[in-house]
Every structure is written in structure tokens, then in C-alpha cells.
Design a protein that fits this description.
The complex is a heterodimer of chains A (555) and B (287).
Chain A (H helix, E strand, L loop, with lengths): L14 E7 L13 H15 L2 E7 L10 H6 L10 H14 L1 H15 L3 H6 L1 H16 L3 E5 L3 H13 L3 E5 L1 H6 L1 H9 L3 E4 L2 H11 L6 E3 L8 H11 L1 H11 L8 H5 L13 E8 L5 H9 L4 E6 L3 H5 L17 H21 L1 H14 L7 E8 L2 H4 L1 H8 L5 E6 L3 H14 L4 E2 L20 H21 L4 E6 H6 L1 H12 L10 E2 L6 H4 L3 H8 L20
Helix pairs in contact in A: 3-4, 3-6, 6-7, 16-17
Chain B lengths: L1 H8 L7 E4 L2 E7 L10 E4 L2 H4 L7 H9 L3 E3 L7 H4 L2 H7 L5 E4 L11 E2 L7 E4 L5 E3 H10 L3 H25 L4 E7 L13 H4 L8 H7 L5 E6 L6 E5 L10 E2 L4 E4 L5 H19 L8
Parallel strand pairs in B: 3-4, 3-5, 5-9, 9-10
Antiparallel strand pairs in B: 1-2, 6-7, 7-8, 11-13, 12-13
Helix pairs in contact in B: 3-10, 7-9
Chain lengths: 555, 287
Amino acid sequence: MAEFLPTPNSRRPSHRIAAFVGNVFPLAEPRTPSAEGDAYGRLHALAEALDAELRVVHGCGGSPEGLSHELRARFGTGLLIPPDPGICCNDVEHLRACLPAAFDELAAAFAGMVDDSVPAVIASEAFQRAASTTRWLRGWAPDLIISLGLGESSIHATIASRLLSVPRLTVLDAAAVDSAPHSVATDVHQAQAVLVADSLAATAVAEVSGHNPATVFVMAANGSPPSELAAHLRQLCAASSRRAAAAIAGAAPPQLGPKAAFRTRVSPGLKLPARCRPFVLIGAERTGTTMLQSMLAQQTRVHAMGELFNPRSIAKDILALPARREPSEPNESSDLSAQQSQRRSELLALRKANPAALIERAVTEAIAAEPGSGTVWAGFKLLYYHGLVDDRILDALAATPELVVIHLRRHDRLARCISMARADASDRWIAKRGPENGASKNAHRAEPVPVDGRAMLEEFGRIEQFESRYDALFAEHTVLQVRYEDLLREPTEQLRRIAATLGFEPREVEPTSRKMRSDDVGEDVDDLAALKDALRGTRWQDLTPGRLAKPKNEP
Amino acid sequence: MSDYYQELDAPVFDYDMHRIAGIATHRFRGPIPDLDKPYFAVVGGAQTMGRFVPHTYGQQLAERIDLPCLNLGIGGAGPRFALRPEILHYLQRARFVIVQAPAGRSATWSLFDNTTTGRNSGRDVRTGRHLQAEEFFEELFARQDRPLLERFVSETRNDYAWSMQRLAQILQPPSIMLWLSVRTPDYEIVWSRPGTVLGPYPQLVDRPTFERFHEAFDHRVMCITSAGLPQRLWRDAPNATVAGTTCDPDGQLWNRYYPSPEMNTAAADALEPLCLHLRDGQRETPP
């Protein structure tokens, strides 16, 4: 899913508009004869008048079960984001680090509005979700933000608009103006233009908010926006408008675009020995990363290290790095043991203090262990959520242009979730191969897994969000996409592909781990009917046992 | 938490726990007065609930000023606990309210949200997981991330001060802020020594934080003493572990943390003149 990257060979409109609407607002065709359809119609008409690409942003604070049919079809797309606490929190930290002055000012303003402390506002789920949407939009880089109505969509629009210095149009219907004048005053105060239903509402809005009447516009009788609004918005959309607005606030406008959105700090990149060819394996859990890591680790002059930044390992001071070497003489044992203990302490401290330096040291040690002066390939495994642990990890990787990214994805998303649920329940994440004909030493016979359809739906959306972010983060790197299903079916061929990209001579090997379950998903789910019901109306609704659970629009 | 203490301390203490109408989540230490008649309220942490104390300062005051006491003290409570609507319901009906300055660790900051509970349990913002504050702190301190620690301290103090100010503003009856501790508000963090970050009870509350809220209350009473500590408790199995106590090798348990019976009496002594005044419907500080 290329949320942020331009589609090749397509003409890009002059501007981008992000329109915030509520959760229950149905997505309808522009000319559907309903109030909601009219609103969408107006948005599309406005976008057309401005030669703008329109993206409708739905907050997703509630359960996906509460979404309308049309919204369920969009669930899991970039702008109908299931709220993941880890992702949201990381997004807040990103905005705080990158836009400190704007962030502090906004948090203080919201604390005043909701009458709570600043830390409580930042910790609140509503603010966290809004920050996540803002970071996503930072990557998409809109020129204008539109909000329809009041409520959560307005809050999200306010946060995004203020943090990103993107001008904003508020659209209010008569009911909103009549019923919530205080909210109108607060909301309108944040906007650079207001569109209301009639002239009475325009007067009311100007009175309660003190807004400049010249920027309060009235819809035409047929509900369409007036032509003078389009002219005003065209001015707002101009890049100079952002710079002017930011200059008034005393700061440069924040950078927008994927690079700005998904990197937090300017990093010098990894400093690696010249003969090193670095790589990283990224993917979600249960996508074959361990299997591929084991295959690479068995290659000549290739060092494929484990999960250097697994939060569980960090919490327990476990380090996925091999010991330097075993003692060759009995009397070496105690000295070497002391040295290894010292080394381990240093590495653990380094991981906390400077993740990039840990990677550099691990790679340097790996290279030093190889005789001669030839190329050495060194890399490690980074699951998606490991990148949330510390932004410095991804910042350093993204700033290393020679890094090759091997991105694993599992197209059968349901099978992946089942595998996750089973591994989580049993806390068995890896099945080792035994010596007898490759069969596992641990026969893994299990009951069907109880599956929560809503949780599964959210997991699908969460993984797609991760995929998009990592695609955007490494858009300028050499990225090798590897499908888990292909890796299982033809491991030698996939290894050959990777070897050709990285530049080493592959040798055929057996992975040291194996797949833990059968391919028949139907055996694994204890209530397939309930699961299908949860997925109905979504992009994964065509799931049947054994069929790949991938969205309709994916090849 | 109070029920948890009751369970731990059952060999020796009966805290006479009761439910109060409208508060489903906790029980409180009795005796519960007739809430249709005048009473005064005390609210705070386990120090007010009276762990290891047969006769709490609230109860002693009630006897001295002849006005029943509603003890809303609960283990782990922070300032937001008193802001919960069901707790405020009873505070607002009291003749006057004594707010014991609670622990600063029971507060919200940007990675730990206790706004719903108001106690030392809450939501890890990063994971959505609910856990005890102490567990969260262990993980936080283990990261050895000084900037993050400093942020934790700063934001927690910010939220604490805000919450105490808010409580003082909301309370309609005359309010007394009670500082009951072995220390004054003055303490310094030595960042190279993690044990100094939280500090002695009330954790994290330092002088600048104290100055931000104490004047918002109608009255302030400082009771700074360590009389009666360490308090000899009961004898348990050798090297027993009973939360909140220390144990000698021979099984003798000691309280070195919660206000002793003597400290409770000292608090009652310090509060009595003012409470007599307020009992009679006066708001201003007595001469």
C-alpha cells in the first residue's frame, strides 16, 4: 500500500486536501441524495475547484464494529487508522521531539480547553490518536485541512493544523452553530476560513468567535461552496501561506513529507567499516524473519544477528549477540569468562545509551572475526514494533544509504494472526528442526485457537500501517521485498535473490527453524463463522479457509 | 489497596472495612458515620486510612471535637482520587475536609495515565496495559534514560500540583491541607543515585511543587515528626515478606514507612484547634 509514495505515471494535482470527518459519517458517492452524501459532494466539488487531491480522514477511536458499511471497507487504510497504543505513543514522542515549541503550546492550549493538566492531556487516548493522525498527515503533506462539524474530527483537525502549520477551513452546519456556540467559538478561532450554511449562521459565527467576517463564507443555495471561497483557499494552499503563518508564530514551518514524518532526529547514519555490506531484516512477527535469519547466518562471511532491540530482551538484559569465542585452553576459561562478562555489560549499557553505537560495535566485531580483507555482510533482525522502542534505531538506519532492507511480508494475513495467537498463548515462538529428516523435535499438536474478530481486524490494519511506514522510511534505500509464502515454497530461490542483491555467493542450507502449523487455516479457528462476520464489509471479507486473506486490491 | 492491606494485616489489625453507597470500587475504614447527619471528611492515602494504626488521626479528632469522621483514605491514592465524582459527592457534603498530601507517584504523566483510578495503578500509555505504578517505575528506572527520568519527575509534579489546586478550587466546604510526614517538603534528587528520585513519603513532592498548591486550600497544617518509628508490629515467620514492612531474621516485623500511632496522635493534636473552629461553621483561621 503506497500511502505516501507517488503513483508512477500519474498526474499529481496541484494541491492536497485532508478532510476530517467523523467516524459514523458514511462514505458515499458524491451525488448520493442525502445530507452526508451532499457533504461529500461539496468536498469533492471543492477539491475539483482547487485542482486538489482529496483524502478523507476518519478518526477511529471506537470499535471497528461501530463503523458504517462504507467505512468498514476503508478500515486499515492509512487514514482510517486503528489506534495502536505503541504507535500512537511513538507518534506523540516524534512530534514532541521534532516540533517542541508547537507541541508544548498546543498541549498547554488543550489543557486549558479541557481543564486538565498538560501531562494528562498528552497521556489521554484522544490526544494520542490525534497525534498519530497528525504524523500520518505529516507524511502525506496536505496543503489544506478541512474539518466538518465539531467533535473529535474537529479536535484532530485542530491538532494537525496547528502542529503542521497547515491552514484550515471549518465547515459548520446550522445545527452545530445553534447547539454549541462555545465549541463553535473555540473551533472557529483555530481556522483561517469558515463555511456555514446561511447568512444567519455567518453572523452568529462571527459574533461568537470574533472571526474576521471576510473569511466567513456562506454556501450557495444548492449547497455548493461559493466561488470566492475557492479563491481564498487557493491563497491559503499556497506554500507561502504556510511560511507566512509560521513566520508570524516566530518559527520556520515544519517540514512535511514522508522523510520528515518517519524520521525523528537528524542522524549521521551508521559508521561502518568500508568492507561491510550492511542489511536489516524487517517484518512483522510470524513472517519468516527467524527462518530467513537462520538461512543467512549459515552463509559464508554473512553475519545475520538476532533481535538486537526486542523490548522483552531489553527488559531482561538479554542480548542477541554471539559470544566472541570459546576458550581454546582450559586455563583460558576464567579470563575469557571475565572478558565476556565485561563485554556483555558494555554492550547492554551501549544498547540503552546509544543504539546506533551498539549496531556499529556488533558489526565491527563480526567483521573483525572474519579473516582476510574481503567483503563481509552484516545485519540484524528488526521486527516492526522493535522500531517503536527507540526512534534513534530507525533514524540511524534510515540515515545509512548503503543499508539494504530485506522486507518480509506475509500475504495470508489471517494465517499470520492465527500463528501469532497460538505462539502468544503457548509462548512458543520458534520450533527447531530436529536431526530426523527435518522434522521438528517438538511435535506441535494444538486445539483450534479462539479468535477475536475485532482484534484480528485491528491487527490487519495495524500491520498495514507498519508496512506503509517502513516503506516510506526506506523509500530511498535498496529494498528487497520477500513474501513469506515464497520463502516457504522456494527457499533456495529466495536466498538466491537476496544473495544477488547483497552480492554474496549463496550456498543451499536448511533453515534451523520450521513452520509450526499446517496450511489449513480452517483447522485453526474455533469459530470461523464469527470471524467471517467480523470481517464482513471490510477489505478482507472474502476470506475462506485456505484462501489467502489479503485485501481485494492487492495483486 | 486497603482491602489488600486488611488481608496482609489480618493477624493483628481489623480495619473495619465498609462499603459506602455509590462507591462500588473500594471499601473504606469504619466506623462510617450517618451520612445524613453532619460529619467531616478525611481523604488521602494509606496514611489517612491508617495502616498499622488502631486509632487514626481522623478518629481521634472525631472524638475530640464530637463530630463524626468519614475516612475516605485509601492505599495508593493520589490527588486525582479525591476528584472522582463519587468521592467528591461525599467531600462536598462534609462540614470540612482534611486533604492529606498524598504520594506524588500516584499521578499522571505522559507515559502513565492514572486519571481514571486516581491511585497508584494506571495505564501504560505505550502498551495500553494496566499495571501498578511501582512496576512501571521499575521498568522506567531500568532504562537508565536520564532525560526520560527528568521528564517523568517534571510532568508528574506538574500533574500533582494541578490536581491538588483543582481539588482545592472545587471543594466547597472549608479545606485543610495536611502535611503528615517525617520530612519537610524540602528534598533534592541526586540523579546518580536512583533511590533519591522518588524520595521519602510523600514521594516526588518537593518544595517548589508544594508551593504551587498549598495556598489554594483554606488552611494548612504541617505535622512533621517521626515519633514512634520504627513501629514494632507482630512476629511472623523468619525473614517473612509482608509488603510495607521490614522483617528481622527472627520474624519480627517493623513498620518504618507509614505514620505510627504516635504520629497520628500528633496530627490530631495539630489539627484539633482548627477543626474545633471549623466544626462550628467558621471558615477563617482561628486566632
